[in-house]
Design brief:
Elements lengths: L3 E4 L2 H12 L5 E5 L4 E5 L9 E4 L2 E11 L3 E2 L2 H10 L4 H5 L2 E11 L2 E6 L8 E5 L2 E5 L2 H8 L7 H10 L12 E3 L5 E4 L4 E4 L12 H23 L2 E4 L4 H11 L6 E6 L9 H14 L3 E5 L10 H8 L10 H9 L4 E4 L3 H5 L2 H4 L8 H7 L2
Parallel strand pairs: 14-15, 14-17, 15-16
Antiparallel strand pairs: 1-3, 1-10, 2-3, 4-5, 5-6, 5-7, 7-8, 8-12, 9-10, 9-11, 12-13
Helix pairs in contact: 6-7
């Protein structure tokens, strides 16, 4: 992961700069002036993610694959800045990934993400002082005297491991939704609600399956060209199997990781490992069998991963085994499936007597 921070207040910029210099991250890009910008490099992949261009700048943090499979570099950053005319969709259509774009051109600044909304962007504004970052913990650390807890949001997070709207656990800090964007100038920041409409799939079922297969293969091809051979955290879930099939179908042989232990990440069956061994043998794939136990005591590594992941320090139970697998795997790209656990672990869904149900039913009867 990489981090970014933008503000109009020099003292906040200097505080965050001091924090990052003492952290595991390496500062990658700095812009000072009326608007202060700082980005850090990813922890594992060496790269460039910010550039001064003309009278402004452009920064791309997260994971972006440009065009047909290019990793972001100075040339692509310049291309993004030169071609930007305020239309976020032109950039989104030219790349894939989970990322944040921060750009200042013609004295108009904007920050936006890909449409999935998976990439967290947080913002604060009070008395003409504002700050934007993808690290809620960093904002908390430098703004602590100005913040107050939102108890309802804390309760929502504790019960659902998420906050569904644009709120955070602090009343003064908001989270940007994927289809919205921020505009900023020297003395103000504004959240713009985008009227973008997500396209709905149309056509026969088999046609949609073919479209999904083609999309998956194209995605795998582009990420391979940008980052090389991937590593897949391989379980028996549909998401992991689709990832593996996507790469195998274009002639790429990923490495496989399987974690054994008692963390919630290892909420799988013994048969999953046996299936992974069959995959390894049949397709000639390297399989790493790792120990992903919960540490004893369970909070043994909390302080360590607080420096890396902020308020997400307890990701995967703060297991050193899991994190060592991610940091030390031989490839640049570690993929974990997403989405299957929510459905598999909801007895409420399994016990429904109807094949389909409306969103209102879910909100009223479960959430």
């Amino acid at each position: 992961m990489s981090k970014f921070f933008i503000t109009n207040k020099k003292s906040l910029f200097l505080n965050i700069k001091k924090r990052e210099e003492a952290s595991p991250f390496e500062i990658c890009f700095i812009n000072e002036g009326e608007i202060y910008v700082l980005t850090t490099k990813k922890l594992k992949v060496d790269h460039v993610n910010g550039k001064k261009v003309g009278d402004g700048f452009v920064a791309v943090t997260g994971t972006m694959v440009w065009g047909e499979g290019k990793r972001v570099d100075e040339e692509i950053l310049r291309t993004i800045w030169n071609g930007y005319n305020g239309d976020k969709q032109n950039i989104r259509k030219s790349c894939i990934g989970n990322y944040a774009v921060s750009i200042l051109k013609d004295n108009i600044g904007s920050v936006f993400s890909d449409l999935s909304g998976f990439y967290n962007i947080y913002y604060y504004c009070k008395d003409e002082v504002w700050a934007i970052s993808n690290s809620l913990y960093d904002l908390y650390a430098i703004l602590k005297p100005e913040l107050s807890y939102d108890l309802l949001s804390i309760a929502e997070f504790m019960s659902q491991s998420s906050i569904l709207n644009g709120d955070t656990i602090f009343k003064e800090i908001k989270r940007l939704r994927g289809y919205d964007y921020l505009n900023f100038s020297q003395n103000r920041i504004e959240c713009i609600v985008d009227d973008y409409q997500y396209p709905l799939a149309e056509g026969e079922f088999n046609e949609q399956v073919r479209a999904y297969v083609n999309f998956s293969k194209d995605y795998a091809d582009k990420t391979f060209k940008a980052f090389g051979t991937p590593t897949i955290s391989m379980t028996g879930g549909l998401d992991a199997r689709m990832l593996l099939a996507s790469y195998l179908s274009i002639g790429i042989k990923p490495d496989l990781y399987y974690g054994k232990g008692n963390t919630f990440l290892t909420n799988t069956f013994d048969q999953d490992l046996e299936i992974d061994r069959l995959y390894s043998k049949k397709f000639g794939l390297q399989l790493f069998e790792e120990c992903w136990d919960t540490p004893e005591p369970f909070n043994k590594f909390w302080d360590k991963y607080l420096d890396y992941f902020g308020f997400s320090y307890d990701i995967y139970a703060s297991s050193d085994g899991v994190m060592e697998s991610v940091f030390n795997n031989p490839n640049n790209y570690f993929i974990l499936g997403e989405g299957g656990e929510m459905l598999r672990n909801l007895p409420w869904v399994d016990n429904r007597d109807k094949e389909f149900f409306a969103l209102d039913d879910y909100l009223n009867e479960y959430y």
